[in-house]
Amino acid sequence: MTGSKMLKVIQPNESPPYPIATKPPPRKIKIGPIQLNNSFSGQCYLPLSVGMLQAYAQKHLSYADHYEFLLAVYDFAPISKIVDQLSNADVLAISLYVWNFENSMAIAREFKSRYPDRLVIVGGPHVPDSKKQFARIKKTDPKPDELKRKRMGMTEKFHRDHPYIDIAVHGEGEKVFRYILEQLAIDGLRDKTKLPSVSYLEHDGVFHHNPKLERMHDLSEVPSPYLEGVFNPLMDAHLDQKWIAMWETDRGCPYQCTYCDWGGATEDKVNPFPFDRVSREAVWFGKHKIPYIFLANANFTILKIDVEIARKLAEVKATYGYPEGISVQNAKNPKPHAFEALTILEEAGLNKATVMSIQSKNYDTLKAVRRENMKPGEYKEIQSRLREKGVYTMTDYILPMPMETYDSLLNGIAAIISEGQHDRIQFNNLSILPNAEMGDPEYQELYGMDMVRTSITNIHGKKSDSVSGVEEMQDLVIATNTMPREEWVKARTLCYVVAFTYFNKLLQIPTMILHEVYDIPYRDIFETLMEKPKQTDNFPVFREILDFFHSFSRGMQDGTQEEFFHSSECLDILWPPDEYALIKLCRENKLIEFYKEAEQMLKQLVEPNKQVEPLIEAVKLNQSLIKLPFQTNDLEINLSYNIWEIYQAARLEKKIKLKQESHRHTIDRTSEHWDSWEEWYEKMVWWCNRRGAYLYGNKNPVPDIEGHH
Q1: How far apart are CA 510 and CA 619, in angstroms?
Q2: Own/partner pairs for 361-364, CB < 8 Å, 24+ apart?
Q3: Hey, which of 301-315, 337-351, 368-382, 390-404 has the most confident mean pLDDT?
Q4: Which sequence spans correspond to the domains of the chain?
Q5: What contacts 82, CB < 8 A, 6 or more positions away?
Q6: Which pTM does this prediction carry?
Q7: Are 511 and 497 contacting, i.e. CB atoms less than 8 angstroms apart?
Q8: Which residues pair with 293 in a beta bridge?
């Protein structure tokens, strides 16, 4: 129009100009990627995070040929050795999380000491982001300024505590890392003001925290490091290394759990990677004989495409024999298609155990951790359908969550079992992550969270001094204002007792018979097992086990005991206390006495006017079914009641009546056997953990690896 100006309309989500180099850097820039991962049973994860950075940079950098990525550092080693390996690097790109933070900082510190003019860049979930609002804080009653008053200084403190870090990246890293490398070509990173989602200290000591970059919604922008050959040089350089894989098929989490940094890290919306890419990655795993995959999706089966992903994995295994197993984190509110996907994995022999992330059954707790929108009915329905198909599940329960009490914990355990969980409740100790809302000091004050700094250990891992001399640490919560220190010890002891008696299957059959036949609440049964051994000297075996669990819990609370029990005699590894108690009971030949005491204790729950014989037979049957080494003959057992049938029906949430009738059972103790204690420790006690496959006839299909529940 004549006499008028065309004004550019800036869209609300339009990005400001980010650095793009118009000429190459004066010399080739060498980048040293670092993503330290623990080695599990001699197997190590391919370093996915830094692999994604490299793949994205090599595709999108203006002058990609002028950047050289050195071999990624993926395993722990002496600090000086790692820095020697990186002596040619101009830039370190370090991925940080709780299991590698201390060693990564030691590498950065030593590298900067030797090469003060070179750059150290860090990113990952462990970099504290004081600008993080969680969206959830804005929806709560407390005043935002009050909630943030202590958190606001976290990022600055991080930089001042670690002055050898030049730039910290917050949130999704691929684009930001590319812009950093572009700016490096432009002016050697003298001007950092245009870099999004970063924080840093200037040379004059002034702290800066730049505005955040909008996260990627089209993940086709990110090439696959597996398909692009990023890991090929690393695998060729370490031919003897056994590799396992982390895998992303989508990114994001719509939930706002305060103990978790998963959803907050990617800010809610779930975006899928293209199925063609995912499908080809699955084939890559098969061709490269990757035995184990950890699916790093916060909610597997939240998207319907996950059914097709499960189907593709099954097809790949049928073709190549790999992968052998996959671990998934099931959707918080599972939908009907979840059943289909999980069944496909189970029928393909891929499912190690489907995790049902309940975490607590106490409504006040779920509200405090922003999980009150969880739909327990959908959980129960999916679990029941999976049970009918023979799919094993494992329920996660975290202790001690805000507002949880000993009483609510006991009620929650009883409820989960009543609703059909008979494979495993995995009782996890609550650990604080800096970028979870629970990492907010105000949140910790609100719920009176008491913490102890303790070393990080891996279940079934080796107890050994760190190869670097630097120990990784975590902040464990060992009391709250609703679960004081003494009550926490009692609660932790309860969890071990339940795991030992019920999920290690030592007393699962009589426990279920008490519930099904005698209408005894599960809560009352576990209270009896917790309290009766303390009241009399008639139960010395039980008392010894209870004392062990109590003293172990006390040591963990005091910071003198790690999360798992080290036994030099039993494979020289770290055992969950309940598993070690099982080993000790059998190895010391106390099993017969244990069942005598159990029978006496449990009989006290039966009303005087009711016949006790069905309970006695349930104890006898359970004792006969426990898997033991050195068995050379099958066992025949005669019962006067349909105990086995009632137990099997109850596991499928069906109820049948008690009948007095003769039953002869042959127990196959020779198809699955162990000819040494050491073999039994590993293949029965360890590998059967997830599925609770401790009774004859219940086989565990795949080996397990340390560090994985």
Answers
A1: 5
A2: 361/408, 361/411, 361/412, 361/415, 361/416, 362/401, 362/403, 362/404, 362/405, 362/408, 362/409, 362/411, 362/412, 364/403, 364/408
A3: 301-315
A4: 29-221
A5: 34, 73, 107, 468
A6: 0.89
A7: no
A8: 245, 326
- C-alpha 682/C-alpha 273 separation (Å) is 38
Token representation of residue 283: 């084939």
Which residues, in sequence order, are CB contacts of 667 under 8 Å at separation 6+?
624, 625, 634, 635, 636, 637, 696, 697
CATH code of the region 29-221: 3.40.50.280
Question: What are the structure tokens assigned to 687, written together?
Answer: 């590998």
Using CA atoms, how far apart are residues 115 and 129, in angstroms rounded to an integer?
Answer: 27
Which amino acid, one-letter code, is at 224? Answer: S
Q: Which one is predicted more confidently, 187 or 148? A: 187
Each residue's pLDDT tens digit, 11-49: 334 456 899 999 999 999 999 999 998 877 788 999 999
CA contacts within 13 A on the Cβ side of 224: 21
Structure tokens belonging to residue 462 = 């080796």
| pLDDT tens-digit readout, 58-111 | 999 999 999 999 999 999 999 999 999 999 999 999 999 999 999 999 999 999
pLDDT for the residue 143: 55
* Phi, psi torsion values for 67, nearest 5 degrees: -125, 135
Sign for the CA dihedral angle at 668, 674, 679, 685 comes to: positive
Chain position carrying tokens 């691929």: 174
Q: Which helix (H) or strand (E) holds 168?
A: strand 167-169
Which pLDDT tens digit goes with each residue over 619-649?
A: 999 999 999 999 999 999 999 999 999 999 9
DSSP H helices in 350-506 = 363-368, 376-388, 406-418, 441-446, 485-498
Query: For the chain, what is the mean pLDDT?
Result: 89
Structure tokens at 158: 């991080």
SS in 3 state form for 488-539?
HHHHHHHHHHHHHHHHCCCCHHHHHHHHHHHCCCHHHHHHHHHHHHHHCCCC
Strand 242-247 versus strand 292-295 pairing type: parallel
